[in-house]
Structures are given as C-alpha cells and as structure tokens.
Amino acid sequence: MKNYWYTILIICLVIVAYNFPQYLIEVGGVKLTTLIIPVLQIIMFGMGTTITPDDFLEILKTPKKVGVGILFQFMIMPFLGFTLTRIFSFPPEIAAGMILIGSSPSGLASNVMALIAKANIALSVTITTVATLLAPVITPLLMKWLGGELIEVDFWGMMWDMIKIVILPIALGAILNKAIPAFMKRIQNILPYFSMAGIAYVITTVTAAGQANLASVGALLLIAVLIHNCMGYFMAYYAAKAFKFNEKDCRTLSLEVGMQNGGLASALAVQMGKAATVGLAAAIFGPLMNVTGSILANFWSNKPPKD
Predict the structure, then answer these.
(1) If you write DSSP's letter for every residue of 265-296 in order, what string do you get?
(2) pLDDT digits (tens, 9 = 90+) for 145-183
(3) Which residue, 6, 220, 208, is CA-closest to 116?
(4) Which of 42, 139, 190, 294 has the fewest Cβ atoms within 10 Å of its own Cβ atom?
C-alpha cells in the first residue's frame, strides 16, 4: 500500500471537495483558486533546483529517444483529446479543457511512476524537463490550433503566462542551485513534500470551484478522461515498440505521454478566468492518472524488463 497512499489521499480530498465545495471555494474573502499560480511557481522552482547539466547530457546520449518522446508527448495526447471532444460533444469550455490537458507537458508524477515501473529514470526526467521547457511555445500553439473554435485563445498571453509559471521559477531554481548549492541541498529535502501538497491543493480547489459543472457532466467527463489517459499509455507504449525501443524505454514513454501536468493545466485555466469549466478536465485527470499510473507502474514493477 505504500505506493498508493498519496493516490488514496487525493481521491479522498476530491470526494470532500465535491461534496462540501462551499468550504473550499473562498476563505476570508480570498478565492482559493487565486493561490494556484504561486503554488505552481513554487513547484516549478523546486523542479529547477533539481536540474543539472547531466539532464541535458542525456539528450546528447540518446537524442532519438528524447526526440521521439517529445514528439509523442505533443502529438498523441492533444489530438486524442481533440478527438474525444468530438465524440462526447461537451460544452465548448469543457471540451477546451480536454484539449488543454492533452496539450500540457508531462509532470513530476511520471518520474515517480517510472522509478516504480523499473523504467528508464534518466530518460523520464529528461523528457519531462525538455517538454516543460518547450511547453510555453507548444501548448499555446496547440490550444490555438485545436481549441481556437471552442474558446478565445490569446496565444501571446498564454505564452507569457506559461513563462511566468514555468520558465522563470525553473530558471531561478537552477541559478540558486548553482550559486548556493549547500543551502539549496537542504531545501531540496522539503520541496518534494511541498510539491505533493501543492498538487493536492490545486486538484481540491479546482474540483470545489467546478462542482456545479461536474454535477452535470461529471460521469461523461470521467469516462472521457479515463479513455484519454489510458489510451495515452497504450498508444505511446506500442508506438515506442514500433520504433524498436527496448522494454524500459517503452515503459518510460508510455508513462511520460499518459501522465500530464494537471496542475499546470489548472493554473492556465485560472489565468483564463475559467477554472470552473476549462479547469475541470485537469481536475479529474490529476487524481485519475495517479490511480491508473500507480496500477500500471506496480504491474510493471513485478515484471523486470528482460532487456
């Protein structure tokens, strides 16, 4: 059960947020969703403190694997999300949220699952890092292309939002890690726990904010997000097989593609002023991918790669 405790906690928090949203929407006149941006910035800062030159050397060691991983990341999930919005005929802003979560990069959770699954940890971290750094350009581009007819997408505004949420905090973390390594080493022991708490906060507050919309489309949206998530694992795994990658790398790409950065997608929805609609798919995707990712990673952990 030790690999599932965080997943169980997230599920419990989502249930509480759905049933008692009035306590998690506003406190002391402050809307809790407004704190999502600074929470994400601290999480990204933490990611920056872990980035080393070795992460980028991995690109030089395995450029094909990293390149294919990035290609899968920004092709499979965005177009899969777009296709599902056509099949399920969601309201425009809910549908835009499906495309947004599909167009987001992978998150830190995929690195944890790669560790459990006995996958290629170095490749997982490298793809997550590169996808996150490319996202401020690629995510708004995909949203404009695939979701522009559903909602108004300000390409340059979204790009700047992502630079503030992603690039600047990561850069600050990397700079401080280089300038004051001893102090940052002590902080690094705390930051993973803050990241876990931060993601829980984001999912809980977005669920509470969108409770009314969830009540009307929740069941269908849950099914669509589950298909989106699981098909991401499946398609990436077998696409990697088609490239003749070994088993460890196939597992890595499967988890990197299937597990998106729901917190980042939620933050972008908040910046749009549409946390209760555009942010719903991300709010469901976050806890759901932790459940499916844990199941898949634990299944693979009992089957050591033969290669």
Answers:
(1) HHHHHHHHT-TTTTTHHHHHHHHHHHHHHHHH
(2) 999 888 988 899 999 988 998 889 888 988 888 888 888
(3) 6
(4) 190
The two three-digit tokens of residue 104, written as one number: 């987001």
Torsion (CA) 115, 266, 257, 4 in degrees, nearest 10:
30
- DSSP annotation of 148: T
Residue 31 three-state SS: strand
With both helix axes pointing from N to C terminus, report the angle between 168-179 and 181-188 in degrees, rounded to the nearest 10.
120
Composition of the chain by helix, strand, coil, percent to 5: 80, 0, 20
Rounded-to-integer distance, Cα 262 and Cα 47, Å? 15
Give per-residue pLDDT as tens, 27-47. Answer: 888 888 888 888 888 888 887
DSSP string, 213-238: HHHHHHHHHHHHHHHHHHHHHHHHHH
H-run or E-run covering 71: helix 63-73
DSSP 306: -
What is the Cα–Cα distance from 150 to 161, expressed in whole angstroms? 20
- Does the predicted TM-score (pTM) go above 0.90? no
Q: How far apart are CA 97 and CA 84, in angstroms?
A: 11
CB 210, CB 277: distance < 8 Å: yes
Angle (CA) 4-193-251 rounded to 5° is 50
254: three-class secondary structure by DSSP: helix
Domains and CATH numbers, the chain: 28-298 (1.20.1530.20)
| pLDDT greater than 60 at residue 198 | yes
Cα–Cα distance between 101 and 8 in angstroms, integer?
22
Q: Please, which residues have CB within 8 angstroms of residue 72's CB and are 6 or more apart in sequence?
A: 236, 239, 240, 253, 256, 257
Which residues is 30 bridged to in the sheet?
27
